[in-house]
Automatic annotation (TrEMBL):
UniProt name for this protein: 2-isopropylmalate synthase
Enzyme class: transferase
EC number: 2.3.3.13
Keyword Acetylation: no
Species of origin: Thermomonas aquatica
Metabolic or biological pathway, per its Swiss-Prot or TrEMBL entry: Amino-acid biosynthesis; L-leucine biosynthesis; L-leucine from 3-methyl-2-oxobutanoate: step 1/4
Co-factor(s): Mn(2+)
UniProt record similarity statement: Belongs to the alpha-IPM synthase/homocitrate synthase family. LeuA type 1 subfamily.
Gene behind this protein: leuA
GO cellular component: cytosol
Domain Pyruvate carboxyltransferase residues, every copy: 10-272
One Gene Ontology biological process: L-leucine biosynthetic process
Catalytic activity: 3-methyl-2-oxobutanoate + acetyl-CoA + H2O = (2S)-2-isopropylmalate + CoA + H(+)
Assembly: Homodimer.
Function: Catalyzes the condensation of the acetyl group of acetyl-CoA with 3-methyl-2-oxobutanoate (2-ketoisovalerate) to form 3-carboxy-3-hydroxy-4-methylpentanoate (2-isopropylmalate).
Length: 514
């Protein structure tokens, strides 16, 4: 086994903008691609695969702009072993500081017969032609044998020999349909490194798909077998079930010292913001339990884990959240939380309770989880303080209607002093209009940082739960609301934050400047 040493650099080849964009729902505009390419360069990837220039004028334009603007990483473009594709790559990459043409052709018997209708000899001729044409235009040429994993091993060696002879510097071995297992991938890389002519002068690369959920494991196994470049995408986006997730691969190499301890050159503290940028661009969020960048990746809800975390965080965390860009771990109070975590959170809120009162607050907090997922600070404060700070703003009625290009919201609130306040506002959509009307009515304004709606329960019992957080006076405050109507749940969550703001101001009166 060839474990990488610290001098054995693993190159990170990001293909979010090419393979990632090739999947339904992930299309990006040229300006979004340019912004994301800048973010990838700042993250520290070695290669940015910017697109497939011959596939459309839009893709050509995006690759061209990235090649001209983005520095700090090689810029690659994909081409079939086809003169028109190679020529388009060369033209689009003109202006790049470090251009790479990535030429590919399928090699497996299935693809040769049904897709290409080519003999083995024709595939080798095309591979050789594609790499030669590319080398006539740029120095850095990568060759991929599409569906390499399902290709006869001896034939794969012949194709790679031809690609090396034509001038390829990187040989990419895709598991195009995500069929391999880690042991098989490692054995394949060991075989190729032992048999391809000139193997020592080229970089072997892995490109693993996630159809069986093995893309990251297979990429790590490829590194064990001698791969020194891994192709991956942020959030694991890509064809079908996606590609290996960059953030997972990089952290696996970082977290397992003495094993995958190769320096990838990635600034891991940027992983979360890069993941979030991609989600904002595509409008597609990662699942909560996604490794590294999912909302639950460093969140602990169950009492036994929370108790362990409070004693020593290594009991339940294998990496520091700050190392990947999170501000900290989160102890989230919910149905599974225990005494240690509730008492700790209350202490942070400034309450040290007698055992009996603590028992009562825990029982009441757990009762809340019949209708909400999370016990918020505001809930604990209410449970401890009762109505000491007054009842706060409550929603009495709301009405939304569409008018011309805008949505109109009218809210009727009962104020903490018992008055009824009616206010209206317009916005670009119901949420913007609703939140603007609430802000006019209460006189509270904050910058919305996050807003999510989930459903709880099914059928006749189904309820919407809205969670949002807002930033005001340098603090982030969260609010939560549940209702059968998601817009009403959202309004309740917004008022939950507003009431917290007012309670905070009551508790800590502002010192006016003299
Ligand atoms: C595993 C991967 O991710 S491969 C990359 C996938 N990416 C894309 O497909 C990018 C988007 N694609 C496109 O815009 C279009 O498919 C284009 C512009 C590339 C080609 O469009 P068309 O000319 O209309 O061809 P179409 O898509 O129907 O079929 C693909 C053709 O390429 C041929 N082909 C496929 N791969 C290769 C290759 N690596 N080298 C040479 N020819 C190839 C096929 O045999 C087929 O040829 P045929 O038309 O003579 O039968
Ligand atoms: C073109 C190659 C690298 C590819 O995307 C695949 O085989 O999945």
């Amino acid at each position: 086994m060839s474990h990488p040493t610290t001098t054995d650099r693993i190159r990170i080849f990001d293909t979010s903008l090419r393979d990632g964009e090739q999947s339904p729902g992930f299309t990006m505009s040229a300006s979004q691609k340019i912004a994301f390419a800048h973010a990838l360069a700042e993250l520290g990837v070695d290669v940015i695969e910017a697109g497939f220039p011959n596939s459309s004028p839009a893709d050509f334009g995006a690759v061209q702009a990235i090649a001209r603007e983005v520095r700090g990483a090689s810029i690659a473009a994909l081409a079939r072993c086809h003169p028109g594709d190679i020529e388009a790559c060369a033209r689009a990459l003109d202006g790049a500081a470090a251009p790479r043409i990535h030429a590919f052709i399928s090699t497996s018997p299935l693809h040769r017969k049904h897709k290409l209708n080519m003999s083995r000899e024709q595939v080798i001729e095309h591979a050789s032609m594609g790499v030669t044409l590319a080398r006539n235009r740029v120095d850095d040429v990568e060759f991929s044998a599409e569906d390499a994993f399902r290709t006869e091993r001896e034939f794969l060696v012949e194709v790679f020999d031809a690609a090396v002879a034509a001038g390829a510097r990187t040989l990419n071995v895709p598991d195009t349909v995500g069929y391999a297992t880690p042991a098989e991938i490692r054995a394949l890389f060991e075989y190729l490194r032992a048999n391809v002519k000139g193997a020592d002068g080229v970089v072997f690369s892995a490109h693993c798909h996630n159809d069986l959920g093995l893309a990251v494991a297979n990429s790590l196994a490829a590194i064990e077998g001698g791969a020194r470049q891994v192709e991956c995408t942020i959030n694991g986006i890509g064809e079908r079930a996606g590609n290996a997730a960059l953030e997972e691969l990089v952290m696996a190499m970082k977290v397992r010292p003495g094993y995958f301890n190769a320096d990838t050159g990635i600034d891991t503290t940027r992983l979360l913001e890069t993941s979030r940028l991609l989600s904002r661009i595509t409008g597609i969020q990662v699942q909560r339990n996604k490794a590294i960048v999912g909302l639950n990746a460093f969140a602990h809800e169950s009492g036994i884990h929370q108790h362990g975390m409070l004693k020593h965080r290594d009991t339940y965390e294998i990496m520091r959240p700050q190392d990947v860009g999170w501000p900290d771990s989160q102890i989230v109070l919910g149905r599974h939380s225990g005494r240690a975590a509730v008492a700790d959170r209350l202490r942070q809120l400034g309450y040290v309770l007698e055992d009996e009162q603590l028992d009562q607050v825990i029982a009441a907090a757990k009762a809340l989880t019949q209708t909400q997922h999370i016990i918020h600070d505001a809930d604990l404060q209410r449970l401890v303080e009762g109505e000491r700070y007054g009842p706060g703003w409550r929603i009495s009625a709301m009405h939304l209607s569409d008018a011309d290009d805008a949505t109109h919201a009218r809210v009727d609130l009962s104020a903490p002093d018992g008055r009824h306040v009616v206010q209206s506002a317009e916005g670009d959509g119901p949420i913007e209009a609703l939140f603007a009307a609430l802000s006019h009515a209460t006189g509270v304004g904050f910058v919305l940082e996050s807003y999510e709606v989930h459903s709880m329960g099914v059928g006749a019992d189904a309820r919407g739960e809205a969670n949002l957080s807002g930033r005001i006076d340098g603090e982030t405050m969260s609010g939560q609301g549940t209702s059968r109507d998601v817009l009403e749940a959202s309004a309740i969550a917004w008022l939950d934050v507003a009431n917290r703001v007012l309670r905070m101001r009551q508790a800590q009166p502002r010192v006016e400047a003299a």
